[in-house]
Amino acid sequence: MSSLLEQKEQQERLREAAALGDIREVRKLVDSGVDVNSQNGVNGCFKYGTLSKTSDTCQ
């Protein structure tokens, strides 16, 4: 099993490949088991708190 850091790096690679339209890389990463539902922690909000349902700020 890969480490958490490796998983996060793979997830970021998947997001980048998707944003660039690199379908080959996207398929490769998805086929290797990268979580397609992972989220990027914007400004640390997902790591240290949650987004409010009524605003765009971290709580």
UniProtKB/TrEMBL annotation:
User: Known InterPro entries for this protein?
Assistant: Ankyrin_rpt-contain_sf
The organism's superkingdom is given as Eukaryota
Protein known as: Uncharacterized protein
